[in-house]
UniProtKB/TrEMBL annotation:
Keywords: Calcium, Cell membrane, Ion channel, Ion transport, Magnesium, Membrane, Metal-binding, Potassium, Potassium channel, Potassium transport, Transmembrane, Transmembrane helix, Transport, Voltage-gated channel. Pfam families: BK_channel_a, Ion_trans, Slo-like_RCK, Slowpoke_C. It is a multi-pass membrane protein. Its main location: membrane. InterPro entries: Ion_trans_dom, K_chnl_BK_asu, K_chnl_Slo-like, NAD(P)-bd_dom_sf, RCK_N, Slowpoke-like_C. This is BK channel. It comes from Acanthaster planci. The chain crosses the membrane at residues 23-48, 107-126, 146-166, 173-195, 201-221, 233-253, 268-287, 299-316.
Length: 1107
């Protein structure tokens, strides 16, 4: 090593003293020797502690426990007999050091923060010293303040190092940890400086590595609270630590020069220039203005590019993603003054949100002054982002979790009007999906117990957990939309009144007439929706109209699709009227159809009365449920004034008038339903066919054997003593076992006539669908017992056994173990003589392609059609057709339909309804409809005819429930057959349906007093006997109203291009001048008390056996 002759400066003007000679190797050697000696000592201690084990293994000496020496480090107490006290002292010291350094204690947190601050101060001193020579002597006559402070810091680091050494269990990994290496290369050179009175800049830049502990420090100080913030800080500190440390090493080697050429090639670079070089190198730019001059610097840059560049390249995309994401979907929602907002969470996808928005922001809702705030944990995909841009004035998206109170605070949940929780209706694990939904409700109610929550659930039994939430209260507007219950209720009512499910599904879905017209024209430019009524008037007969207008049926159907259910406060002009008088006046003058009213009873509870009778008087505050094309037309009932809107006023001009009588209407309009009003439902419905008196039976023996009336398969019968459940709402029977309900013998199968077949595809591992929701509407107590149709479940018995305990108390329910895809099994349950065949979707979730999601139901549907085609000319079919011709009124309900083909051959068609998971698959159900996958479900022929159903039609219930919860109650009642708080509680508990021990005739009449039935009455029979083909629908409506019957629509034969068909389609609320046809059936609400209750109800209804 050469000594350079350097001029020494001792004057006060000289800040530093430059020494002759280089002793850098002494500073570096102190660190390397410390590292090597420490490593050797660690291995030596490990060897000594394992030596007794090695000896014992060599001499086969057993350990203290008699098990021999185990692999690994042997306990220290094997070295000395009296080592227990020493071990206890060591463990106590280790525990004390661990508690001292732990951030869980206050002292540990203070020590950690102090260590970080002192490390940063030591690094700041290093940055200042980079402006001085790399190696220099300390002044003899005066001290160096910064050197003195840095020595104090290093003694502090030494103390912390000792505590860390004691607390660590594995000393080897401790010795090579990052913090230990930093201490080894910074602390020993301090002692060398004190001995030789000179200092070396060295590797003191390593102190900046303490930056990697910055996220932990900020968490302790509660500065960082989100995962994104912690991750972003960690990435930035790693990049900054590597960047600044590398700059310090490069500064050292370039300012020192290469030692093998006597440091002659050094260059003077500041620390800032070295940082610039590392940044340029990390970014792979390399301008070339500053380059390494030493060999050591060149070698370092090579390794720097291989190491630090990899860190930079991997961290930068994550940093950009976090920063960009945080700016876009983080932040706090700022409520708009004068506007309410709702929070929507749960299953947030493009399909779920678009379906929700389509109904929530529909133009028919008038002005929707509500903003929508979406909250979800995932990043929105491109389709969802495009949807946000289209509705940016009405909708905001925030990324967060409903389980995080800070995220709920960000979306201002406390200030929101309601919280809507969407579910994944197609989830292959419905129980798991429902559990997540209920946990979201718990989190929201925990944040704000008074928040109104509307939640979607798949399974009906999941409602049990909602009842366990103390703050769940329907009086505050909390409501649950059970997908399975409503879906199966729709399908069940279709078994009794074909097409009614289509009518109800269209009523609560928002569709405007202009929207329907645009969609039809868009699908087929050559097709136009004709104004059918004008054509009918010019035609010689309605039948000729259909021959001239092949698309006339679509025009009629779409006219009904434009109607929805609206609620509106009634004008004071109706005060004092009876309900039928008001229905008549609304129908004639306002062109509105009133189907129910809402009033307060003597207990100040809200009642909903469906098809109110003459005993209901309209008073101030009454709210009506109307069928109307939009909310504007429904407001006619609110603004109607007898003084201003006389007979000559056009219906379009009925609006707010200026007379004194109507000035107070605005004050009364506030009495409309608010979600904090409790309600009690009085009106409940039964959907079924109105059976005319049965004609005399044919004396033929074969016809007697194949009697159309459903036969009970039980050997016992007692038709004089029906039994009901404890509420009186449903027929009841003692519990039966699966074996009792299993159909095995041919003797039992031969009596299956006019029954309902339910095809199931589940197995022992499939999710339950809740068959009780299907059976209950079909076992309502306002059916006569002899009118109950037998239900046969065709499927895997292992699956049905899992749900049997929920349906074992309902009469006339049986099981057949088989497969719906088997022709033999379908024939064994007499599908030819069934009233309805229901094909329920499996939805097993094992199909990736959408077209395969409904493969079982489509194949079963095609299988059934093939069976019908093959058996159309069979002997049994001809017998049934002959019976149908002999007594056509008997088959008015549509159990076995008779039609004449062009050759006059009888054709027997069994009605069926198929459930679909994917709407697009409806194209595979019918051969004579359009196969356009872009056509919406409600525009397809199977849905218009009531032969197809998909769960997607229930999407609009969320927005309908938000705007008026009584609408959901109305729909639920008309679909499920009735509700009762006590019954809901019993069913939620999962117990057996209790019987009504003894229900008197008087009590049963009280229960059924306000229940009405939905009937399909034929033209030319019964109440409509005087009406013939070509009569006006308005005249028929008013005539039926005089008898207490409220007409809803028409179920008409489908005639396309002059060809007759056994299919029918739904026409909802046709105009008054709409012409009726001879084969029409009228949907109507008929009072149950009009039936002859005294004859069909015994004096007491006791518990009975399965009749």
């Amino acid at each position: 090593m050469l000594n350079h002759s350097i001029k020494r400066c001792y004057g006060p003007e000289c800040e530093d003293v430059v020494c002759t000679g280089r002793y850098w190797w002494l500073f570096l050697a102190s660190s390397l020797v410390t590292l090597a000696v420490g490593t050797g000592l660690v291995f030596l201690v490990r060897f000594i502690t394992r030596l007794p084990c090695l000896n014992r293994r060599r001499h086969h000496v057993a350990g203290p426990d008699g098990s021999g020496c185990c692999a690994g480090i042997c306990p220290i107490n094997l070295l000395e007999k009296n080592a227990e006290a020493e071990i206890h002292s060591i463990e106590a010291a280790k525990d004390w050091a661990t508690r001292l350094l732990s951030a869980q204690s206050r002292f540990g947190r203070i020590l950690l923060i102090t260590y970080f601050c002192i490390s940063m101060a030591s690094y700041a001193i290093y940055v200042i010293d980079t402006g001085k020579p790399i190696e220099r002597c300390l002044p003899a006559d005066r001290g160096d303040l910064l050197f003195f402070i840095d020595n104090i810091f290093n003694f502090f680091f030494l103390g912390v190092f000792i505590f860390r050494f004691i607390s660590w269990n594995d000393k080897f990994w401790f010795w090579f940890s990052v913090n230990t290496l930093v201490d080894i290369f910074t602390i020993p050179p301090t002692f060398v400086s004190l001995i030789i009175s000179r200092t070396w800049l060295g590797l003191r830049c390593l102190r900046i590595m303490i930056l990697m502990q910055l996220p932990e420090i900020l968490q302790l100080l509660r500065v960082l609270r989100t995962s994104n913030g912690i991750k972003l800080t960690s990435l930035l500190t790693i990049v900054a630590g590597a960047w600044l440390t590398s700059a310090g090493i490069y500064h050292l080697v370039e300012n020192s020069g290469d030692p093998w050429i006597n440091f002659n090639n050094s260059q003077s670079l500041t620390y800032g220039q070295c940082i610039y070089i590392t940044v340029v190198t990390m970014s792979t730019v390399g301008y070339g203005d500053l380059t390494p001059k030493t060999t050591c610097g060149t070698i370092f840059i090579i390794f720097f590019i291989l190491g630090v560049l990899a860190i930079f390249a991997s961290a930068l995309p994550e940093i950009v993603e976090i920063v960009g994401k945080g700016n876009k979907y983080s932040g706090v929602y700022e409520p708009v003054k004068g506007k309410k907002h709702i929070v929507v969470c749960g299953h947030i996808t493009y399909d779920s949100v678009s379906n929700f928005l389509k109904d929530f922001l529909h133009i028919d809702r008038d002005v929707v002054n509500v903003n929508i705030v979406l909250l979800d944990t995932t990043d929105p995909d491109l389709e969802l982002q495009a949807l946000f841009r289209r509705h940016f004035t009405k909708m905001r998206y925030f990324q967060g979790s409903v389980f995080n109170p800070s995220d709920l605070q960000r979306v201002k949940l406390n200030e929101s009007d309601a919280c809507l929780i969407l579910c994944n209706k197609y989830s292959p694990r419905p129980d798991t999906e429902d559990s997540g939904q209920i946990m979201r409700v718990i989190s929201i109610k925990n944040f704000n117990p008074e928040m109104r929550v509307i939640v979607q659930l798949i399974q009906d039994h999941s409602k049990t957990h909602l009842l366990n939430i103390p703050s769940w209260n329907q009086a505050y507007g909390d409501d649950v939309i059970c997908i399975a219950a409503l879906k199966l209720g729709f399908i069940a009512q279709t078994c009794l009144a074909p097409g009614f499910s289509t009518m109800m599904a269209n009523l609560f879905a928002m569709r405007s007439s202009s929207e329907i017209h645009v969609k039809v024209v868009k699908d087929d430019p050559t097709e136009r929706v004709v104004e059918t009524q004008s054509v009918v008037k010019n035609a010689s007969s309605p039948a000729e109209t259909y021959l001239e207008s092949p698309e006339g049926w679509m025009s009629h159907y779409l006219h009904g699709c434009g109607n929805e259910i609206y609620t509106e406060s009634l004008s004071r002009a109706f005060d004092g009227m009876t309900a039928p008088e008001m229905v008549k006046e609304c129908f004639i003058k306002l062109k509105l159809l009133l189907i129910a009213v809402q009033q307060n009873n003597e207990f100040d509870e809200t009642e909903i009365i469906i098809n109110p009778g003459p005993y209901i008087t309209i008073n101030q505050g009454t709210v009506g449920f109307f069928l109307a094309p939009d909310a504007t037309e429904a407001k006619r009932a609110y603004y109607y004034c007898r003084a201003c809107h006389s007979e000559g006023v056009e219906v379009e001009k009925i609006w707010k008038c200026e007379c004194k009588e109507c000035e107070s209407l605005d004050n009364n309009h506030a009495k409309k339903y608010t979600h904090k009003d409790g309600h009690k439902l009085l009106a409940m419905t039964r959907l079924g066919d109105h059976h005319e008196p049965a004609p005399a039976r044919s004396p033929s023996a074969e016809l007697a054997e194949l009697k159309i009336q459903g036969v009970n398969l039980s050997e016992s019968s007692d038709h004089d003593r029906p039994a009901y459940d404890f509420t009186g709402l449903f027929h009841w029977t003692p519990a039966r076992t699966v074996e009792d309900a299993l159909i095995t013998s041919a003797q039992k199968r031969r009596y299956l006539v006019n029954h309902i077949i339910v095809c199931l595809f589940g197995d022992e591992s499939s999710p339950l669908i809740g068959l009780r929701n299907f059976v209950m509407p079909l076992r309502a107590s306002n059916f006569k017992y002899e009118d109950l149709r037998t239900i046969v479940f065709l499927g895997n018995i292992k699956y049905i056994e899992r749900e049997w305990d929920k349906i074992m108390n309902f009469p006339k329910v049986f099981i057949y173990n088989g497969s719906p895809l088997s022709r033999a099994d379908m024939c064994n349950v007499n599908v030819h003589q069934s009233a309805m065949c229901v094909i329920l979707s499996a939805n097993l979730g094992d199909s990736v392609e959408q077209g395969l999601q409904d493969k079982e139901t489509i194949l079963s549907s095609l299988n059934l059609k093939s069976i019908m085609a093959a058996g159309a000319h069979s002997r049994r079919s001809k017998i049934i057709a002959a019976y149908a011709a002999e007594s056509p009124t008997r088959l008015n309900g549509g159990s076995i339909k008779r039609s004449l083909s062009t050759q006059g051959t009888p054709k027997i068609t069994v009605p069926m309804i198929t459930e679909l998971v994917n709407d697009v698959n409806v194209q595979f159900l019918d051969d004579d409809d359009e196969d356009d996958p872009d056509t919406e479900l409600y525009l397809t022929q199977p849905f218009a005819c009531g032969t197809a159903f998909a769960v997607s039609v229930l999407d609009s219930l969320m927005s309908a429930t938000y705007f008026n919860a009584h609408s959901l109650t109305l729909i639920r009642t008309m679909i499920t057959g009735g509700t009762n708080a006590d019954l809901e509680e019993i069913l939620a508990e999962g117990g057996e349906l209790p019987p009504g021990v003894q229900i008197s005739r008087t009590r049963l009449k009280e229960l059924l007093r306000d229940r009405c039935t939905v009937a399909q009455l034929s033209i030319g029979t019964g109440v409509f006997q005087q009406f013939k083909e070509g009569a006006a629908y308005g005249s028929l409506f008013l005539h039926a109203l005089e008898s207490g019957i409220l007409c809803l629509g028409i179920y008409r034969n489908l005639i396309i291009a002059g060809k007759s068909s056994s299919k029918r389609y739904v026409i909802t609320n046709p105009p008054q001048d709409f012409d009726i046809l001879a084969g029409d059936r009228i949907f109507c609400l008929k009072h149950f008390e009009d039936l002859n209750m005294n004859k069909e109800i015994p004096e007491t209804a006791l518990i009975g056996s399965d009749l």
